[in-house]
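Consider a typical record:
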Amino acid sequence: MADLEFFEKVAARAGVPSETARSLAEATLRTLAERISGGTAADLADHVAHELRPLLARARPEEPQAFGHDEFLRRVAERAGVAPDIAERGVPAVLQTLDPVVGHQRFEQAMSQLPAEIRALAQPVPRRR
């Protein structure tokens, strides 16, 4: 999937403009890379659009940082320059868009390194009828 298509899907899922979706995607991928192992982040990077790869690849294979749901969202909001409620909509949109791009098994391997409350962000919210 080309990066533009990725951003468009994030924008549609989060209900935000394309530029905001781009900022959210970049911030979310960078924050995800900090929270998972360097090897897993590099594996994900191999399967995303060229422009997105540097966001997931880390210069040093350091240990992942330990932080929870609130800090994950805070970092994304700060990096993307958006309000916390936009980050709360944007992170799930990015993660749900990333899943089919990198392959579900690879995505689940990355998600397994996260605490349950961050993993929950990747789950689609059931639609009400």
About this structure: The chain has one domain: 3-122. The chain is about 65% helix and 0% strand. The mean pLDDT is 88.
